[in-house]
């Protein structure tokens, strides 16, 4: 197959006409026609379609589309999805010719009657090596997770990857989809929901991958689910948490109607539908205490940080001292991929020492993600804002109060700290369950015992919220009393006793020395 060079959106008057199914894409007149009649298509959508069509079957990456269509403008990746929806709507029954290749880009499928009138030979650019046909950079430290998830998918109809923001759910889902598509030729359809907030928009996003026209003003949810139920293969649903009710409805209807379709979803919340199996995605592995240099360098968390450091132009020799500094940074960020990538980017400007010191206030220092990343992945604070805003008032209160714990805690300890006259023990326990489900609190099983903890960035975010709510002094004092065994139960329920008086019974200076990270408010 000959691969035409992707060109800028400005086309010569004698540019080619490309047949796309029953439609003609006239690059010279910048027009899309069906049966000789013009089809309405916006300027940006035309440029996206032209760039994909000129690739002549080669997969066009998102970065290539951004460069071709928005060369001098910083835009979000969501713009591509918006334009593709418009293109598929304009193509009507030929919408299925525009393929989404998970993790790689977009492609014009070869139709039996597809033809292209090429550029004159002297005007055609040199053939371009289809780099996008190769898989993206290898995932670090996820082979075991991928193997386990694929094993789950062999028997489960619905698998949901659940985890905190920036933990790597989407990357894992895309990698699994890529492997199934290339190794087993599985038909994969990808639904990206980050930009959709209404029920109608969610239904339309699912309709866009159905390869079928829908009559009326907009597709009906049940109709879309029935069409999806007739499509075998893998349906990947990404970023479902903020519209989880609508997604759950579609997924439940689809899975019940079709035993051949497998659904792989990513979400900070589980869908809570029948037939669903949940896989909790955790941070990248850190080196074990006392590991030698080689073992530290093989650690997935260290490897990701160094990879991003190199990609940001830092080529300094990794001496033992610098490697120890990198290890400390990665440990303090607890192996969270997004935090590691943002820290490496900042380290390329501030240096390793600068970023290590800045991690006392990680939400201030860890920002500046990829331009094409979703807004909530541009900084750690944005990642937490996205999820915190979806909590109800009680869940927000419990989360920020539990941020005073800098180590694992029991549900009984959580209740002592978080409850008050309006939050009973039962309510606190319910909130903890919701916060675990929504990936803001991690759960640990130690034999028959269960404990909980907040990852370091989540604690920093919670402390900011605690300060903003005007509760930080009260909750720190309550934690000090609890840690010393001097917290009167009655003081939390009714406020009848005086915690400050009880606090005088303990050696406050010694407690602050034992809890340095809890001894000061954020920014102090």
UniProtKB/TrEMBL annotation:
Report what the protein is called. Answer: ATPase/DNA-binding winged helix-turn-helix (WHTH) protein
Q: Is DNA-binding set as a keyword in this record?
A: yes
Q: Which PANTHER family match?
A: HTH-TYPE TRANSCRIPTIONAL REGULATOR RV0890C-RELATED, REGULATOR-RELATED
Q: Which SUPFAM superfamilies match?
A: C-terminal effector domain of the bipartite response regulators, P-loop containing nucleoside triphosphate hydrolases
Chain residues forming the annotated DNA-binding region: 15-110
Domain named OmpR/PhoB-type is located at 15-110
**CDD domains for this protein:** trans_reg_C
């Amino acid at each position: 197959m000959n691969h035409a060079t992707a060109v800028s959106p400005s086309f010569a008057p004698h540019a080619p006409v490309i047949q796309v199914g029953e439609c003609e894409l006239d690059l010279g007149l910048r027009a899309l026609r069906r049966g000789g009649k013009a089809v309405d298509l916006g300027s940006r959508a035309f440029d996206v379609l032209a760039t994909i069509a000129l690739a002549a079957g080669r997969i066009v990456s998102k970065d290539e589309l951004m460069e071709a269509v928005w060369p001098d403008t910083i835009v979000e990746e969501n713009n591509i999805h918006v334009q593709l929806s418009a293109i598929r709507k304009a193509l009507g029954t030929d919408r299925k010719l525009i393929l989404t290749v998970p993790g790689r880009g977009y492609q014009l499928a070869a139709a039996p009657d597809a033809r292209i009138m090429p550029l004159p030979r002297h005007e055609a650019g040199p053939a371009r090596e289809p780099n996008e046909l190769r898989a993206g950079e290898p995932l670090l430290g996820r082979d075991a997770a991928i193997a386990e998830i694929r094993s789950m998918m062999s028997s489960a109809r619905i698998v949901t990857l659940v985890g905190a923001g920036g933990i790597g759910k989407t990357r894992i889902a895309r990698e699994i989809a890529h492997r199934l598509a290339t190794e087993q030729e599985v038909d994969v359809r990808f639904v990206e929901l980050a930009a959709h907030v209404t029920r109608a928009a969610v239904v339309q996003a699912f309709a866009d991958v159905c390869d079928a026209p829908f009559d009326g003003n907009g597709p009906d949810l049940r109709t879309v689910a029935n069409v999806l139920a007739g499509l075998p293969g893998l349906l990947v649903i990404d970023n479902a948490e903020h519209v989880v009710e609508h997604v759950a409805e579609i997924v439940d209807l689809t899975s019940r109607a079709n035993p051949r379709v497998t659904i792989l979803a990513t979400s900070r919340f589980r869908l809570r539908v029948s037939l669903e199996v949940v896989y909790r995605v955790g941070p990248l592995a850190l080196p074990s205490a006392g590991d030698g240099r080689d073992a530290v360098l093989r650690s997935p968390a260290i490897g990701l940080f160094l990879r991003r450091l190199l990609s940001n132009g830092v080529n300094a020799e990794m001496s033992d001292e610098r490697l120890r500094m990198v290890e400390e940074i990665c440990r303090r960020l607890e192996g969270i991929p997004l935090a590691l990538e943002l820290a490496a980017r900042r380290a390329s400007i501030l240096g390793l020492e600068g970023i290590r010191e800045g991690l006392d206030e990680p939400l201030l220092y860890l920002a500046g993600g990829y331009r094409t990343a979703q807004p909530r992945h541009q900084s750690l604070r944005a990642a937490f804002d996205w999820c915190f805003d979806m909590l109800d008032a009680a869940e927000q209160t419990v989360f920020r109060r539990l941020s005073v714990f800098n180590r694992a805690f029991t549900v009984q300890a959580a209740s002592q700290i978080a409850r008050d006259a309006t939050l009973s023990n039962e309510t606190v326990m319910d909130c903890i369950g919701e916060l675990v489900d929504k990936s803001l609190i991690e759960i640990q099983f130690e034999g028959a015992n269960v404990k909980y903890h907040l990852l370091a960035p989540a604690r920093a975010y919670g402390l900011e919220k605690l300060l903003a709510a005007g509760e930080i002094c009260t909750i720190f004092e309550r934690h000090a009393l609890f840690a010393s065994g001097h917290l009167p139960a009655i003081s939390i329920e009714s406020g009848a006793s005086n915690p400050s008086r009880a606090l005088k019974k303990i050696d406050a200076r010694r407690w602050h020395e034992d809890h340095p990270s809890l001894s000061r408010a954020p920014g102090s």
